[in-house]
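Suppose you are handed a protein chain with no further information: no name, no annotation, nothing but its sequence. What can you learn? This example shows the usual starting point.
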Amino acid sequence: MTDQFAHLTPGLDSPSMGGNAITPSDSTDLPAPVRAVTIGTAAGVIKYVHARTGATCTTGPLPVGQHSIWARRILATGTTATGLTGWQ
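A reasonable first move is to predict its three-dimensional structure. Written in structure tokens, the prediction is:
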């Protein structure tokens, strides 16, 4: 199969290039920055380190579902949402 979009550069509004389960950590960055996070198990708050600025951010309460979060780390301390998947 030929990828007819191979010549294009993906942007932040492009479909994801892959996803991984997230284990929140206060000391370890994700394998690659994510631009969206799916909460799959329990709604809650996500505390994260912004991928570009390095600022620590905290969401308000989020429902189960997909949310636009550009992060290089999801922090264990302060994150109450569970069943997280990150999308590159």
